[in-house]
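Figure 2 data, in text form.
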Amino acid sequence: MSLYKTILEHHGIADLSLFRDATEVLVQIPITGCSLVLLDLHMPEVSGQEILKQIKTDYPEIPVIVITADEEIDTAVECMKLGAFDYLTKPVEHSRLWASVRHALEIAELQREVGNLSRRIKSGKLTNPEAFAEIIADSESMKSVFRYIEAVAPSSKPILVTGESGTGKELIAGVIHTLSRREGPFVAVNVAGLDDTMFSDSLFGHVRGAYTGAEGQRSGLVESAAKGTLFLDEIGEMAAGSQIKLLRLLQEGEYYPLGTDQLSTSSARIIAATNADLLAQQEQGSFRKDLYFRLMAHHIEVPPLRERFEDLPLLVDHFLQQGAVELKKNKPKVPKELYVLLESYGFPGNVRELQSLLFDALSTQTGNTLSPASVRSYLDKHRDGDGSIASAPKTQQPRISFSGKFPTLREAEDYLIGEALKKAGGNQSLAAQLLGVNQSTLSRRQKKAPPRGG
């Protein structure tokens, strides 16, 4: 067994214990928090089958891989019936042993994660709400994201975080790292614009003489993130050669520093983020399918701001407080009109754009109440050619439903105009912005509309 211990340590499996007395295994499992057992059937005092049966009775979640010199089919069948994950015959090839152990650990981890996720969804509560303090949100869509993050954060598998620019993907990655309780640091790198050589040098480091100017050895970011988290931003812009190297890192936990054929191993957890459509890139042949599915072990889609406008009051209050401190001003009051204005806009830059917009408005503020004028001016500059306010690409159908008689186009238009005016408190300018038209267009349509009830 000492040989197998050496093989597993080579592949980065740490904290291994070796026991020659089978009964000691049963004593140590609850103490050590065992994740997997390699069991030799031929042991003194107690048979391996008896130990296997006892382990699977008391700890059914722990995978057990049986190793024996016995090639009898009946013995193998008996062990599998007792719950063994795999059955290996001596002498065991190194690659076969590692493949079996890795597969067992992956399956066990997946089962734990499914259980955790199920419990989180059922409870509807966060265990560590303080970890999300930097993410200003109270909408149900974001709470759902938070619950999922808590469930998958302890996993060692990769996580893909997708969402439009400005939605806070790096903040999400930071929370995942915090909740993972990993020993190592959080290391972030933007891979956009890195060619294959720069990517390898940045992530994997180099040895002396690897290229002109490489006068000494340098560690890469993968080593810097040892036992921690490596966050790769803008993953959709990776070069083809870099994708192959990242795939090996994810599959095998191995990489080659530049200038050497000596393999290094990684203990860093990978989180990748992108605002690109990776499925479309696969169809175009610019992003590898096998890499995509490796990254998709867990997937977090961060909703755009326009799909969680219920968070606007919290975000506005937070950014105005933040800006007031920085500009050494009193935080102004916010008129209701401002929220109507903001909800009329699609925010292609999401939360980051809202922050910039409010900071700019606050910098010119003189009174006790924030004037909507600067916000309206910003929105006017971002109108489409037809006068409607520009919006980000739509990711879902408008939330409009009906029952009974299908409305005519005139009836639907009258209803929407009436609702917009109601929401805008009778302010035609604001109502026009909610409807995505200019005020003169709204006035013309109101004049053409028949009196309500007539």
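Caption note: DSSP finds 19 helices and ten strands in the chain.
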